[in-house]
Description:
This protein has 421 residues and is α/β, with parallel strands linked by helices. Helices cover 36% and strands 22% of the residues.
Amino acid sequence: MTLLKNIVLNRTKCDILIDGGRFKKIARELSVPADATGTEIVDLKGECAILPGFYNTHTHAAMTLCRGYADDMELFKWLNEHIWPFEAKLKAPEDFKTGLRLAALEMIRSGTVFFNDMYFCNEQMPKVLETMGLRATLSFTFLDFQSEERRRAMIDRIKKLPFGGNAAPSGRIKFAVAPHSIYTVCEKNLLFLTDLARERGLKIHIHLAETRKEVEDCRAAHNTTPVRYLEKLGILGNDVVAAHVVHVDDEEIAILRERGVTVSHNPVSNMKLSSGVFRSQAFLKAGVPVTLGTDGASSNNNLDMRESMKIAALLAKNTYSPETLAAEEIFEWATRNGARAFGLDAGEIAEGKLADAVIVDLNNERLVPHHHLVSNWVYAADSRCVRHVICDGKFLMRDGHVAGEEKIIADVRAAWGTAVK
């Protein structure tokens, strides 16, 4: 049990009692229950405010090892000539563990409490992540490149994963199924993976309509567009999280809304790879559930959701109007919408909700003056404003420090060296 004293919520100083991983009580003034033992009291002295943590709905966590490796080129050249050859050199599972820990550290320090990952997951990854305290949905990226030999090998590997239920004792980590995209997975396997996911009640995580080339290639191969192709196959549903979804028309947006597909907007990666402009105004108008993702650190090049919030909002305003995607709306995409997409009773600071939160320093110059905290958080702040991070009722970061962070950095340097001589 933890009692947060004198913390600012909605411009009002209050106390918050956390018990059993949830916000049990929020009031102007609380005391430790008489029958409680071992309760930690943390007095924030009115100098900090509490906000929901971030829910990053699309990333490739262990690609932190690729950060800065191949920049300033379009998606398919970047993938085919640089990223996939680099990944082929990674040693499994050691390098994947190292990259995952680094990603978890970076996300915690910038206020993320959950991420939806698409990478080369195996049964060891939940064990690694469990020690970091985050929530996550982990998936094994399936790519067959239309090769029968590779298809069989990938199926053998994915069948060995302990799918179903919780992937770790805490219940914070779950598995998902991730066909990479329609251009890397054949139709037979798209259907196989969909059936596998639905038999076991798992999310389906896929890149969709990211580039014009993807659309053109889909038209050439299937005489239709990517969204319509997946609709024809019966794959779209409320268990699907589709990343990017840049090149779609109004009818396709309506299909996504009707099927209940969650869309993960990745503005920084889209802009860096020149993939196109997300139709935020059209998605808002249609009522499609939209969330926010960073993508991987090789195409972002960081995992800072607050930065992605700001860039998403500014891109929408520059494309449409100053009123499009207001601070409160993009904040919802990054917090409550992301939590809802994965069935988490979280994403807001309220009694009974899961105790996931970021505590920000109101004395930081980026948050002064305090006219509108959410506006400051979206447009002005940076990760230095984050003082503490809480997930599942436990502190993952205190006063800007994450337990074990020095070893994580040292391990990455030992494995991959440093440019410093």
